[in-house]
Amino acid sequence: DGFGDTINKFVEPFVGGGAVLFDVLSKYQLEEVYISDINAELINMYIMVRDHIDELIEILSAYQRDYIAIDTEGRKDYYYNKRDEYNLLIQNGQSQEGVESAALFIFLNRTCFNGLYRANKSGLFNVPTGDYANPLICNEANLRAVSEALENVHIICADYSASIDPIDQNTLVYLD
User: Fold this and answer.
1) pLDDT tens, 42-84?
2) Cβ distance 4 to 168 under 8 Å?
3) Which pLDDT tens digit goes with each residue over 101-152?
4) For 22-135, where are the E strands, in sequence order?
């Protein structure tokens, strides 16, 4: 039936897209949940989804409204402008906090080629645009569900070794 009475904590040091995290959160009541990743922009996105969902949805809704209303060439220009905005935040050291960075992170993920996250040697996001007819940039119901699921989750930007502290004999650790 699951973890039984022995597991009351979950730790995922390389959270990435969080598929296992959200499956565990939907099925089990745990006392403590810790997620971390070394990608500061990813961690910022999780924190903003958890703590600033209304503002995030407002920005993403505007992106979606603008993006869907334009033709293919216009979409390419829009995408590369948003990618440039995001990379400017990276260059200025502002990409690791704030709703604007999180919104750009999600927008780029939903509209780039295959939903990849890839950076060049300078740390700049360099994935080209994708070719989607109607990408769902702002899935409000899902974002609100994720925000609620993350409500009591400890979210840490750190190397995997920082995840060792909360681990004890009652902890399920998922390493991927």
Assistant:
1) 999 999 999 999 999 999 999 999 999 999 999 999 999 999 9
2) no
3) 999 999 999 999 999 999 999 999 999 999 998 999 999 999 999 999 999 9
4) 32-37
Q: Specify the DSSP element, H or E, that contains 11.
A: strand 9-12
Residue type, 12: E
Greater pLDDT, 162 or 125? 125
Tell me the two tokens of residue 157: 């930007």
d(CA 33, CA 24): 10
Q: Is the alpha carbon torsion for 70, 127, 94, 53 positive or negative?
A: positive
The pLDDT of residue 165 is 86
Non-local (6+) Cβ contacts of 128 within 8 A are: 112, 113
Query: Among all chains, which residue has been given the structure tokens 């704030």?
Result: 98
Cα 166 to Cα 90: distance, rounded to the nearest angstrom: 31
Report residue 98 CA to chain centroid gap. 13
In contact, 82 and 115? CB cutoff 8 Å: no
Alpha-carbon distance values, 1 to 5, 28, 102, 172 (Å): 11, 10, 37, 15
Between CA 156 and CA 174 the distance in angstroms is 15
